[in-house]
Amino acid sequence: MEEILNIQNLSKSFTIHSLDKHIVGSKNINIKLAKGDFIGITGKSGSGKSTILKCLYRTYLPDTGEIWYESSNFGRINLAAASEREIIYLRKHEIGYVSQFLNVMPRTTAKEIIEQAVLEMGHSQELAKKQAVDMLVHFELDEELWNSFPNNFSGGEKLRLNIARAMVKHPRVLLLDEPTASLDNASKLKVRELIEQLKAEGTTMIGIFHDIEFMEGLCDKVYNMQAGNFI
């Protein structure tokens, strides 16, 4: 199977100068993923799980280590050393990220948020409108909300919209940071359906979950983190 991600000796730490304190986020992380693999990461809050995903998405710049990614546009590229221009391209076209929080431009409706994600991929306005509706229907977001601004949505509604925006792109790699944290069981099943669909299409995924039951039968391998490292 084609290798798409190879994380080698990844480490990231943080210094709080006002407290003269050094915090280890993650250390010596090594993971290999083939196309279509789904890796799960569990562990207590503060153990460093999210740090790994943020280094992959380059929200954080790693202290040490390499993140080799097989890009459809750039070929083999080290995400830890890639330029800002390359990272922006990859975020738009190849690597998706779902967090518990929805960050969007103000005065943008729920439907427009998903349409913009499709348009970023270079698709037509017509296809963007169709896929946006399909996603909103799938996640059972009330039709009255489609043309509303998400700042007044509930936490669960925002999270469903966040997941829809990332998944509608069918990315090569999808990073999931507690994507089911504030969802009810029916919404969790909707997320699981799409994860299974993306996996079947060959999307490679790394997910952080507290809900162990949700992960059963989904993950090819599960890592448990403690104090910045796998145990």
From TrEMBL:
Its EC number is 2.7.8.37. Pfam families: ABC_tran. It comes from the Bacteria. Keywords: ATP-binding, Nucleotide-binding, Transferase. Gene3D superfamilies: P-loop containing nucleotide triphosphate hydrolases. One of its GO terms (molecular function) is ATP binding. It is an enzyme of class 2 (transferase). SUPFAM superfamilies: P-loop containing nucleoside triphosphate hydrolases. Residues 5-231 form the ABC transporter domain. Belongs to the ABC transporter superfamily. This is Alpha-D-ribose 1-methylphosphonate 5-triphosphate synthase subunit PhnL. It comes from Clostridium vincentii.
